[in-house]
Amino acid sequence: MDLGSTNGTFISGARVTRAELPFGLAVQLGDAEIVLEPREAPEPARAEAFEGMLSRDGAMRQAFELVERVGPSEAAVTILGETGTGKELFARALHARSARRDGPFIPVNCSAIAETLIESELFGHEKGAFSGAERMRKGAFEEADRGTLFLDEIGELPLDLQPKLLRVLELGEVKRVGASRPIQVSVRIVAATHRDLRAQVRAGRFREDLFYRLCVVPITVPPLRRRAGDVRELAEAFLARAAPRGVALRWSEEALAKLEAYDWPGNVRQLRNVVQRALLFRGEGLAIGPAAVTFEDTRAAPADGGDDDTLYVRGLTLEEIEREAIRLSLRRNRGKRAAVVKELRIAKSTVMKRIGQWGLHDEGRPPGEAPEPEPDDEAEVA
Question: CB–CB of 278/293 below 8 Å?
Fold first, then answer.
């Protein structure tokens, strides 16, 4: 629209006061001529490297930013995420950004130590404290003095040891097994677990006071299946890292499509293994095809109906079985809560609570589709 300019607006030599202008048309404004062109579509977010982790996913970037903010503090952090998502890398990133960066970083996997030994591993023991204790041994807390202690799989810590851990966190002192006096230590705690610690607290398997002491700042690491675009980026990065020197290997589009279609129960750790195995079975040529991509899935073989119709229960807890049943039902029903309530015959309130508790809000819903209203009370099944 020309608002009464002195020189006027001309299109193809004709003066206009109002017109809809298509892209590519020359418009004369006084002594100047302009051509309207469409704005280029914004480039997709590039994968961001952070302490050995690569991601373009928004949730992962938020986790990276949280590490940057929390790292310099002394706050206790608990990293939440499935097995294989890289929780220890996050713990090391926190340590590297803290004032303790020059001190030790001591990782302890609470699920990998026998219950009879874990107290000695954490707190140490004196000579002769028990059968086989032939000499004094420092525990992980003493080893991590002036540094960071990473307690991986904290949800597996025996209930009877949890008060002792709480005492260390509150008083900053440890007592070796068989010792009469405590020892002062200065340690920052970073914990991690694949468990739902809140559910563990409700079930009486984890102390509530210890939960609040450890989860001052929770950091959630999303599973690989929820990280849009990351499978391709990571597969290419792992391939470049593992390929023989001087050999420019690449993935075929069919192989990448196969990788992106998989749901990755073992997350990034499993993807790295798949890439290494594909290198061994790639055959001739520089392009790695889909035949070289195989998955070492520990679950039972899926039925003909597909993964969304099969619930794998071997080795799962009741809580994990319930979560998987709701997740698969959401997939089958395209995220419709009312259909899940009807199919599983679970109370509506329970379904909605579990969806929120386990972060299943977008499970099964097509991208861009708005959330549906909650199911009516009449749909609730006792």
Answer: yes
